[in-house]
Amino acid sequence: MSTSERVPMEPRAPMSLSPSRASDFMQCPLLYRFRVIDRLPEKPSAAATRGTLVHAVLERLFDDPAAERTAPRAKAMVPGQWERLLASKPELGELFAEDPDGERLAGWLGEAERLVERWFTLEDPTRLEPAERELFVETELDSGLRLRGVIDRIDVAPSGDVRIVDYKTGKAPRPEYRDGALFQMTFYALVVRRLKGVVPRRLQLVYLGSGEVLTYDPVEADLLRVERKLLALWEAIRLATETGDWRPRPTKLCGWCDHQAVCPEFGGTPPVYPLEIVSVRPPESGEYGQGRMDPAPPAP
Q1: Which are the contacts of 151, defined by CB distance < 8 A and separation ≥ 6?
Q2: CB 14 within 8 Å of CB 39
Q3: Which of 160, 209, 220, 224 is deepest in the core (most CB within 10 A)?
Q4: Measured between alpha carbons, how far is 77 from 58 in angstroms, rounded to an integer?
């Protein structure tokens, strides 16, 4: 089924926050509505799919003994992981529907292989034994707000120090934009702090696109700040959900948005608001437990 033929999923009121959806709301409240409430379909993205593919390779590589975690081995895994991903999500074939000779696909896979190889210049997997990979985490703040997400990797040192690692297939942001990049990591640090009872010693972003590593050592005050920010975001989301007032916030990123046809900034009309006036609330304390850490669904 093509993207244009896909049927939107049933609308629903927001129930939790993840780093991605929190970032959506900060970028553009209307985009958040389209993704979380209307649940409008979006076209597969070559860049995002390549990121998923690279993440799958880097996760699966740690299944091998340390001595076998080599760049040639990781590079050789790329085609097979792409086939697994395609088998689980056949719609991704749309990315190369008009590529009869396979030239575009070969170039795309080649770029994924180069990103995987670059990782070996930034970290040495033969000296790493991650405590967790692709870990789904969920916790409930004292306010009742649920936070959830998937952490790429958690390392635990013999001393007990915790490091949260996230792989990025793009380029590292300029210094003035790094706060946005670290928001996701402090979000995860807050969740880990509540689940494990320790403040992570280090947050590490590995940018494969530019071959850079960005690190930050958080303190308790950082986690309190991000918690306050999340509570303020949730309050804004609650008000927008109850009033149906989701305003677009045009930026340069609009050029990559899949929803221009229904966005008033581009002359479109949003779908009829699918929710009646509702009261969005966090779950009652204990309704979902205090939190959990589970393996994410296996990479395809």
Answers
A1: 132, 134, 135, 137, 164, 166, 188, 192
A2: no
A3: 209
A4: 9
Residues 6+ apart with CB under 8 A from 275: 11, 13, 37, 241, 244
Give the relative orientation of helices 103-119 and 71-88 as an angle to the nearest 10 degrees.
Answer: 130
Q: Distances from the Cα of 248 to the Cαs of 16, 23, 37, 203, 279, in angstroms?
A: 21, 14, 15, 32, 22
User: What are the tokens at 223?
Assistant: 């986690």
pLDDT tens readout for residues 262-291 = 999 999 999 999 987 555 555 444 443 346
Question: What pLDDT band is residue 295 in, cutting at 50, 70 and 90?
Answer: low
User: Which pLDDT tens digit goes with each residue over 220-240?
Assistant: 999 999 999 999 999 999 999
Q: Tell me the two tokens of residue 154.
A: 């958690």
Output the six-digit token pair for 115. Answer: 């990103």
Q: What pLDDT sits at residue 10? A: 80
Nearest partner of 222 among 183, 196, 192, 195, judged by Cα: 183
Pick from 70, 163, 56: nearest CA to 124 = 70
